[in-house]
């Protein structure tokens, strides 16, 4: 999110300078689905700066209008060398949909997971308000309903949720987590350095270490979207991971 306004090579250069290893390219700005030229540019930028693509951040929401469109997204993810595609679970919160609307999203996610599997890819849900992953409980239910082994979820601290409740939610989805979006917001979406929520992230990384498998920790936001803050935030991220190990 912080680097949206920069071109692909500068994004990769900034990531390398900060000592980061993986990158998630967004489908809204840098590499749109089906844009082979942009995908090639991003892939070449990663090669120049010793990075790999862990995920393709799509804005697929598993709605009926998107039926049959996931193949292009999966093909672009393959061009980027990604192992995973991030998707969204509908357009409304879990308390705001009826059973029919929920089943439509389930059907869309099944299709996406099956198409991704054909391309050797995983899929992971954005853990976010205003979707069917607005709570850990709803996320677990949704993953069970979809019933695909290559579908998991991201995790991030929900807005305004106290640490204890946020961490309880992480424990609930821990076995299904594929990556975490790391940032410090409080209250609401007021951005702070990572160190402003040191206790939360140290404990979160402690829980994630118990998963016993490699997981991606992705810096998503920094204060004021200032790219110059990324090296310091990356250093804080590494220290938080070490503290939680």
From TrEMBL:
<protein>
    <submittedName>
        <fullName>Sugar phosphate isomerase</fullName>
    </submittedName>
</protein>
<dbReference type="InterPro" id="IPR013022">
    <property type="entry name" value="Xyl_isomerase-like_TIM-brl"/>
</dbReference>
<dbReference type="InterPro" id="IPR036237">
    <property type="entry name" value="Xyl_isomerase-like_sf"/>
</dbReference>
<keyword id="KW-0413">Isomerase</keyword>
<feature type="domain" description="Xylose isomerase-like TIM barrel">
    <location>
        <begin position="14"/>
        <end position="189"/>
    </location>
</feature>
<dbReference type="InterPro" id="IPR050312">
    <property type="entry name" value="IolE/XylAMocC-like"/>
</dbReference>
<dbReference type="GO" id="GO:0016853">
    <property type="term" value="F:isomerase activity"/>
</dbReference>
<dbReference type="Pfam" id="PF01261">
    <property type="entry name" value="AP_endonuc_2"/>
</dbReference>
